[in-house]
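Query form — protein NAC domain-containing protein

QUESTION: What is the three-dimensional structure of this chain?
INPUT:
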Amino acid sequence: MEMTKVLASSSSEKHVDAKVVAEKEIGDNLPPGYYFLPSPSQLIQEYLVQKILGLPMASDNVKIMDYVEHLDPSQLNLDEFKYSRDNEGYYITKKAERKTKEETSIKTTTRHWKESKSNSQICNKGSQIFGYKNTLTFYEANGKETVWRLNECTALPDIVPVHALTDTVRAKIEEYAACRIRFKKVKLLEEIIYDEDVEMDEDED
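ANSWER: The structure tokens for NAC domain-containing protein are given below.
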């Protein structure tokens, strides 16, 4: 399977073609200054849907772990994502259980994630909606907002071919999400401590 626009250069912040990601392990051939950075649409099409259908994913830089949203960032081994940027990881996970659709907070061990932006549309090149992205912010036990963010990408059933859309697949579409957890990049005074992300962070605060 061919993958494109999955690597980005830290110097130009522009995505480049990355067929190499799908053809072989990228680590030994990754140019300096480049990193793994799939867009929301790629996370859904090349990873989430593949997992749901029981097919191989494009790269093992997206990990499988249940209920990631119930964990604090400190409980995740983000160092294992050797092709991603520091303090950034990608997961296919079972979604956190919520009592109602209106519930915006997800409890972790001692703290919580809270939605800061919900239901951003994810579209294909033909402008067809096939998924949604929710952005959550991590809060300390005392209610203080942190700079940790979680992007939860979910798929719509229409993205799966009709012949493969069984009741089991529909249930998995409801059950699973593709997530990116990262330390939000911010600017402090005139010095750039971290600069803004691309693709995944458009229109986020």
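ADDITIONAL NOTE: The CA atoms of residues 163 and 169 lie 11 Å apart.
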